[in-house]
Amino acid sequence: MSGKPVLHYANTRGRMESVRWLLAAAGVEFEEKFLEKKEDLQKLKSDGSLLFQQVPMVEIDGMKLVQTRAILNYIAGKYNLYGKDLKERALIDMYVEGMADLYDIIMNHDFKPANEKEKDLANIMDKATNRYLPVFEKVLKDHGHDFLVGNKLSKADVSLLENILWLEELKPDALAKFPLLQSFKARMSNMPNIKKFLQPGSAKKPLIQEKDIPNVMAIFH
């Protein structure tokens, strides 16, 4: 073993992308073992590697961690991205959980039938601009610091940046009405570890292409 975390998932964003983001933001190098066919997933299930018979799964510190939020919480705690005390941690959890619903509908957009995509995108943007983004614009205004919680990077900042960049891929002017979020995006994107992750050739996954959807679906279904 190299000592690096090993990520087990398909070569796509899905529920592993937040893990890639958080490790990258922490400056942690990791390896990936991609599931390429249904048999790869079945092998992990049959050898007892998946506690709940699901990926993502991350091998780290002698453990085989499953459940995305548990994985993210462990990484955040290990690499000091989880606030300085219980109150900060509660805020971080609250913000991340608040974004989880938005993340799910963004993630599922590419898998919608072609005739539903326009309506689905309108629903995503309606929820983003009227429900979620105003919350974080206000948090930044009221908090008055560069970061969402305290005055240092946390998993909440990383999650927010991941979500807004994905939104902008779907609709480039998604942040038009949110000047503080625009500034937040610029600041976060220029942090050295994150800037590196945003460069071509990094472990950051692109939007899934239409032609790749059947292959991914075949692994999981």
From TrEMBL:
Residue ranges of the TM segments: none
Chain's gene name: LOC116240798
Name the UniProt record assigns to this protein: glutathione transferase
Enzyme class: transferase
Keyword flag Cytoplasm: no
Pfam (any one): GST_C_3
Domain GST C-terminal as annotated: residue spans: 85-207
Keywords: Transferase
